[in-house]
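Incident log, structure service

09:12 report received: a user says their structure output differs between two submissions of the same chain.
09:20 pulled the input from the user's history:
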Amino acid sequence: MTYTFRNLRIAGYVSVFLLTGTVLGLSAYFAAIFLPKLHHDFTIFSLVVSAWTLFIFTILLISSQPRIEALMLFITASLWLTMGAWSVDMIGHVECFGLTGQTPTKNGFISAKSYCYDFKVIEAFSWMIFVLLTFFLIFVIQLANQSQIMGRPFIWREDINDLPWFGQAPGYPGLPYSSGYQQYPYSQMGMPMGGMPMGGMPWNIGGNYVHQQPGHSIVIQPGMNGAPAQVTQVPGMVQAV
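09:34 re-ran on a clean worker, output below:
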């Protein structure tokens, strides 16, 4: 795992949990005073979206892959986008501080101002959650693409915690990589193709310099599960299989 990405991911998801829990609590309150006669469509939808988010994010925190995480983030963000837009359509034009009447419930009435403020909280938190999930999705895609460029072609199927933060190498423990980090093309089998620059030319591999022997090729094989790369020198030119 990479500590920076893991810690930031946990902090971000905890924020989503707190916001979603607030929306779920207000939605449950609306369900108690309105259902089944009043505002049933929006109330049921808000309950489903909140419960879905808490359930899915609990699963993702236990175990996830970048490809699964990206899909779930896209679906959940779309639900919260719908939630925010629906909230704006219902109460976005209303100024709560000027309300003085009452709102009917299934068993009586509540203050219209109190109901308006509660609804405004759902509206605001829905948009906040949508924005957070959108940023999370962008980060996952960007970091996964970065890992592929750095020599992890199958990162989309690996553990989500192997993703590096910006300026780090993928895998454990997410060490910084230098700007001179060499990239090597991969064959169809995912193994790196050898290169053979001029004899004696030093290679910068992960910040460590390896001096190539004349007439030899340097072959770099990425380590498994974040282990250091294996560097060997073989005579002649090594071609991809």
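09:41 both user submissions now match this output. Likely a transient worker issue. Closing.
09:42 reviewer note: Confidence is low (pLDDT under 50) at residues 178-201. The CA atoms of residues 104 and 237 lie 82 Å apart.
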